C-alpha cells in the first residue's frame, strides 16, 4: 500500500500535483479542502471545523489501513513546522500507517511567495476549492500564514527514509508530477 503525503504552504500546487501523481499510481487523492469545504459552509471557520475535518480524515485513514486490498491514498495538507501540534499530527499519521506492507512517502513542495500568490487565484484552484473563491480572504490567509508560521522545513529537519523536497516555483504541474512519480518508483 502506498501512502503519499504531499505537504507545503498554501497555493504551492499540492492538489493539482497530487491529482497527477494519483492518476499515475491509481490512488485516490484526499486534498485538505475536501473535508474542510464540506464543513465550513454549515458552521463557519473555527476550531470545530478543523476538529470535525480531522475526525473525518482519520476515519478514512483507519478504514484504508483495515482493507489489505486497498492500494493506498495521497493526502495533501499544510504543515506548520513551528507548531508542535502539527508534528504530533504527523506522528499520528505514521502510527496509523505503520504496517510493514505500507510504504509512506513524504513529499514536501516549496515555491516562493510571489508565485504562490499568483497561483492562489488560478481558475482551477477556485473551481476545486470553494472556500478559496473569496479571493481577498484567501490572499490574506496565505500572506498572514506565511508571516506567522514556517511552512517549509529546514535542511535535514525531516528524517524520514522516503522523503523528497521539491521546489516547484519554476516547474509545471507535469514536470513536478513526473519528478515525484520517478522518485516514488525508485524508492
Concise account of the structure shown:
This protein is an alpha/beta fold and 187 residues long.
What series of H and E elements makes up the topology? Answer: EHEHHEHEHHHEH
Oligomer: single chain
The largest sheet, given as strand count, sense and whether it forms a barrel, is: 5 strands, parallel
In what range is the share of β-strand residues? 5-15%
How many helix segments?
A: 8
Number of β-strand runs: 5
In CATH terms, what is the fold-level topology?
A: Rossmann fold
**Which structural class do the helices and strands define?**
alpha/beta
The low-confidence parts are none
Look at the structure and give the mean pLDDT. Answer: 90
- The CATH superfamily bears the name P-loop containing nucleotide triphosphate hydrolases
- Look at the structure and give the CATH class: Alpha Beta
Write down the overall geometry.
Answer: globular
Give the end-to-end Cα distance, rounded to a whole number of Å.
13 Å
